[in-house]
Design a protein that fits this description.
Layout: E1 3-7, H1 14-23, E2 29-33, H2 38-45, E3 53-57, H3 63-68, E4 73-75, H4 88-91
Parallel strand pairs: 1-2, 1-4, 2-3
Length: 94
């Protein structure tokens, strides 16, 4: 049984990524985690007929602990929105 977690599942990259993972025959369980709207995204994807069971988690009530427990694959497309005042090198110091 393969469990995948998407941290940042409510964002512009996380939602389509979650859709692709939900349709994958390699995934048995898919947990979505983000700071907002994750249960809604999970509810939308739950209507897709596939083998993957899906759940949505928020930070409240140890949502991260539940989402990441026993995960085999963790994908983190979460990020901070760009600020027009910052140059690319200022956002990502090495």
């Amino acid at each position: 049984m393969v469990k995948a977690v998407v941290a940042g599942a409510s964002g512009g990259i996380g939602q389509p990524l979650s859709l692709l993972l939900k349709n994958s025959p390699l995934i048995d369980e898919l947990a979505l985690y983000d700071v907002v709207n994750t249960p809604g995204v999970a509810a939308d994807l739950s209507h897709i007929s596939s083998r993957a069971k899906i759940s949505g988690h928020l930070p409240a009530n140890d949502g991260a602990k539940a989402a990441f427990k026993d995960a085999d694959i963790i994908v983190i497309p979460a990020g901070i929105p760009r600020n027009g005042d910052l140059l690319p090198m200022q956002r990502a110091p090495l």
